[in-house]
Specification:
The chain has 545 residues and is α+β, with helices and mostly antiparallel strands. Helices cover 22% and strands 18% of the residues. Helix 2 runs antiparallel to helix 13 and helix 10 crosses helix 11. The radius of gyration is 24 Å and the shape is globular.
């Protein structure tokens, strides 16, 4: 009776108790610790319900790792099969010949290597300088693959169709955990570059991070429970109150204290895995102790994102359990049900075409193309954005100011969101930024900014460029595209074969990026080019229409 009252009071699924016990006694996630655990249970049949009478493995038993083919394949639903991905590199690759645009970090990422591994295999006079044609020695690609268990579909990792219907605040208020009372002081850049701080509730922070990074809020909530027990435990350790997702020690010299910074880091890392695999050619995963695996050829990007995230600051054997059906999946399933129930697949259809878009400023004006393809929000997202600086010259020594020139609508649609320096233009007009094509404008000053719910036509005023919102050290305007919530690369040079995305095209000028070089590249039209360059002193980055 008491059990039923608890479940009824907090609107929890009975399987939640099993997931919590599994989390506590096998992975140690509620305590923020890592244990060496290997799965020894017989894999349940596909489509079977959770075994609520099973006993969790003894956390003190340490056994040798098993081959990935013996991992549990518990799938309550029926994930849509993904076509085997055509690998762009073969297992016997021992060298990489440097191509234009290559960086050491990009090479390492493509082959699933750390920079330390690359440096240890090569005698490089200056790792920051590579020459086209230079040969980089590589250890051979691993033969073993990551588990083929699908944790989550793409449309439940990305803030995709259906995500906006989830009531974050309504869900949190029903929970018994620390998350109900948690708050954090969060800063927002203002137009002049100063920061305004305000105290936000956990619900507000989860929603904000979800919107900014375009990551589904349910994934963030489930990870908070999986890592630190925030949803189920009222009294969590002090260190897990300030660092629930990544410890202060693992954060290095970067300040990640507080829920907002912790979730922003989490969302960014999830995006690194998702878009690294989907648009940057990532093929392998490496652990701190040199264990390396190829990403399984039949996985989807959402699962790869979680496999990558859970590998961070983790040992191999602990990770094996966490990416199985007995790991993170159980916690997600306990709170939110089967993630594969009614997924949107494919999230981005093959052959997607960008609708006509103009430059985001008035015809006849000359702006400056100051940033080539880079992160739509954070460095982990697809390189969906480019930057433009307005024509007015700032006063000497003043980098952040509100421009007198207007940012304009690149297409017709409805303003789905306006605030915090961001404006989201919804091209299908339904007011839901998780469906269809949307355009994000960032660093738009609050003064004169278009209001949410306004219908605009091509060329209508959106607002004026500044330093407001996100991160900016000088006045400019940042523009990025999404489709069904997924960031669409401005230049798709590294998109997986068969999964290409349309290049960003503004007034007939197509964006071309350099592989692994953020903020670089050019725009091209009828044989003419405009280079992405900082400043206003070059004629090569001036654009107009």
């Amino acid at each position: 009776m008491e059990l039923q009252l608890i479940l009824s009071r907090y609107c929890l699924r009975p399987v939640f108790l099993l997931a919590l016990l599994t989390c506590l006694f096998t992975v140690g996630c509620s305590l923020g610790t890592s244990r060496v655990i290997v799965i020894t249970a017989t894999p349940p049949a596909q489509g079977a319900a959770p075994d609520t009478g099973s006993v969790p493995p003894d956390p003190n038993v340490v056994q040798a790792p098993q081959n990935s083919t013996t991992l549990p394949q518990f799938i309550p639903g029926n994930p849509t099969p993904d076509s085997p991905r055509r690998q762009t590199v073969s297992g016997d690759v021992q060298q990489h010949v440097v191509q234009p645009g290559d960086t050491l970090f990009g090479i390492a990422s493509a082959y699933g290597l750390s920079l330390d591994t690359i440096l240890a295999s090569n005698e490089l006079a200056n790792p920051d300088v590579l020459e086209v044609g230079q040969v980089i020695q590589l250890p051979g690609l691993p033969s073993e693959e990551t588990p083929d268990f699908k944790i989550i579909p793409d449309s439940r990792l990305v803030r995709a169709p259906g995500s906006s219907a989830f009531d974050v605040a309504g869900f949190i208020v029903q929970l018994p955990g620390y998350i109900r009372t948690a708050t954090d002081e969060v800063g927002t850049n203002q137009a002049d570059g100063t920061e305004r701080k305000e105290t936000l509730t956990a619900a507000q922070i989860v929603e904000r991070v979800s919107l900014e990074y375009s990551v589904d809020p349910r994934v963030l909530l489930a990870l908070l429970e999986f890592r630190a027990g925030w949803l189920s435990t009222a009294q969590v350790r002090p260190d897990l109150q300030t660092h629930p997702m990544i410890s202060e020690e693992d954060s290095g010299n970067i300040d990640r204290e507080g829920l907002y910074r912790q979730l922003a880091w989490t969302a960014n890392q999830l995006n690194f895995g998702y878009y690294g695999w989907k648009t940057r050619g990532w093929v392998a995963l490496e652990f701190e102790r040199d264990e390396r695996l190829l990403y399984n050829n039949g996985l989807n990007a959402g699962t790869v994102a979680l496999q990558y995230f859970l590998s961070l600051n983790n040992d191999f054997t602990g990770w094996v359990r966490q990416v199985s059906s007995a790991g993170f999946f159980q916690v997600y399933y306990a709170y939110f049900g089967d993630p594969f129930a009614n997924p949107v697949e494919p999230l981005v259809p093959s052959g997607l075409v960008q609708p006509p878009m103009t430059f985001p400023f008035s015809s006849g004006e000359t702006w400056f193309f100051t940033g080539g393809a880079h992160g739509g929000w954070g460095s982990g997202s697809a390189w969906a954005a480019i930057d433009f600086a307005p024509p007015d010259v700032p006063q000497t020594g003043v980098a952040c100011y509100t421009s007198q020139f207007w940012v304009t609508a690149s297409a017709s649609g409805l303003i789905a969101r306006s605030g915090g320096g961001a404006v989201v233009l919804d091209l299908d007009g339904d007011g839901d930024e998780t469906t269809g094509w949307t355009i994000l404008y960032l660093h738009i000053a609050s003064e004169g900014r278009v209001t949410e719910g306004t219908t605009v036509q091509v060329g209508d005023r959106i607002g004026r460029a500044s330093c407001e919102g996100g991160f900016s050290t000088a006045t400019h305007m940042h523009i990025a595209r999404r489709y069904n919530g997924e960031w669409i690369p401005a230049s798709c040079d590294e998109c997986a074969p068969g999964d290409e995305r349309p290049q960003m095209n503004l007034s007939g000028w197509e964006v071309v990026g350099y592989r692994d070089q953020e903020y670089q590249g050019y725009m091209e039209k009828d044989g003419e080019r405009r280079l992405a360059e900082q400043g206003r002193n070059s004629t090569e980055n001036r654009v107009s229409w």
